[in-house]
Every structure is written in structure tokens, then in C-alpha cells.
Design goal:
2 copies of one chain form a homodimer. Chain A is α+β, with helices and mostly antiparallel strands. Chain A has one domain: Trna Endonuclease, Chain: A, domain 1, CATH 3.40.1350.10. The first copy, chain A, is built from 3 helices and 7 strands. In chain A, the strands form 2 sheets. In chain A, strands 1-2-4-5-7 form a 5-stranded mixed sheet. In chain A, strands 3-6 form a two-stranded antiparallel ribbon. In chain A, a hairpin with a 4-residue loop joins β1 and β2. The radius of gyration of chain A is 13 Å and the shape is globular. The interface between A and B is medium-sized, with 17 and 17 residues. Chains A, B: Keywords: DNA damage, DNA recombination, DNA repair, DNA-binding, Endonuclease, Hydrolase, Magnesium, Metal-binding, Nuclease. Chains A, B: It comes from Methanobrevibacter ruminantium (strain ATCC 35063 / DSM 1093 / JCM 13430 / OCM 146 / M1). Chains A, B: It catalyses: Endonucleolytic cleavage at a junction such as a reciprocal single-stranded crossover between two homologous DNA duplexes (Holliday junction). Chains A, B: Its cofactor is Mg(2+).
């Protein structure tokens, strides 16, 4: 289910999407870009984690780069920049991120 | 989390609210009235049940009558009218419905 108001303006820590399949519950913050990098302020990731803790969901950052599938990173795999915010490079994401099937539990492929 | 577009217009079976607390997940269709009766079309209840099955949530109809607290009925406790839709009387609701604490699992009081 998509959140009613996306973006950082809301005071409540709502993720962009909440999803469930009867076994797994996901809270997803979504970013798309035509560039090779995605920047995110740390309050958005903090809010994603806070909501997930309260609701009982696994938090993910969902990313769509040009020519890639949707890719998903757990907050602990998102690299901080010096100023405390987050930057995700497309190459890092292609190497480390999970695909939709994997975060839904349909595929437990381990990435090396 | 509130759904982005409430009401029966959407094709997707989204409830008005999805809530979780790490243990219990709820899908809630919400109705308020200043009258003593609430009418609901059966496709809205069908959609609530369908979403709940897919997502993995317990479905409830959440009702607010004038001078009452929020009251919650499970779909199986909602009475059908002759035409297949649903009608909930305030008195029936006060007798049979659960309160917020009860559907959140904070209180397991049995009603007689």
C-alpha cells in the first residue's frame, strides 16, 4: 500500500510503501534516478527504521536506476557520507542490493 | 498508515487504514455517521477481506457513531441485509463490537 503523502514533509515517519504477503511485511522508501547516484538525507532513513520498528516490518530502500531492475538495500548496507547523510552508487547497488523476489522471500540466493 | 485514496472508486482492494504493532496487523475500513445506522455495500467488505488475505492482516470495520468510541466489527459479525449489502445498527454495534484496545491485543475482555 502506497502512503498518502510521500516525501519528507510529513511529521509522521511514513515509508512510501508498506507491503505484506501473509509471511513477510516490508516498509520501503523509494528512490528513482536517471543518474548513477542516489542521495538521501539521514532523517528519511531514520524515519524508515522508526516506522518499521513500530509497525513490525523489514525496512528497505528501493531504488530504480536507468536500465536496472528495482533494487533493494537494507539500511545497514547503505553507506553514509562524511556529513552523515547517505549516498548510493549504482555499481555498489548492483553488487550488494537484493531484487524484489529476494526481499519477498521467494528467492534466498546469496550474493558473492 | 492511511490509504492514498479512500472510498470505493479504486480498483485495488485497499482498506482505509493498515496498522501494525510488531505482533498484530490490522486492515480497517472506516465509517463514521451521525445517524444510528451504517450501510456498506458488500464489494467494500469483500475488498477488505481480499486485501487482508493477501497482505496478512486481520480485517475490521471501524465505526464511529455520535457519542460512541470507535468500535470495530470483524466481517463475520456484520449482518447482511436482504439485498446482500450490510447494515450495522448502533445498538448492535455497542453490544457486539470491540474497542481499539481489544483489536490491538492489549485487552482480551470477552463480551457477553
Amino acid at each position: 500500500m502506497r502512503a498518502p503523502a510521500s516525501g519528507g514533509a510529513t511529521k509522521k515517519p511514513l515509508p512510501d510503501v508498506v507491503a505484506g504477503n501473509g509471511k513477510i511485511y516490508l516498509a520501503i522508501e523509494v528512490k528513482t534516478t536517471t543518474k548513477d547516484k542516489i542521495y538521501i538525507d539521514h532523517p528519511q532513513i531514520d524515519a524508515l527504521i522508526e516506522f518499521s520498528d513500530i509497525f513490525g516490518a523489514t525496512p528497505y530502500l528501493g531504488m530504480k536506476f536507468k536500465y536496472t531492475k528495482w533494487l533493494f538495500l537494507a539500511p545497514e548496507n547503505i553507506l553514509k557520507t562524511k556529513n552523515g547523510n547517505y549516498k548510493i552508487e549504482k555499481d555498489y547497488c548492483l553488487e550488494k542490493a537484493l531484487e524484489l523476489d529476494e526481499i519477498c522471500g521467494f528467492d534466498t540466493q546469496v550474493k558473492f
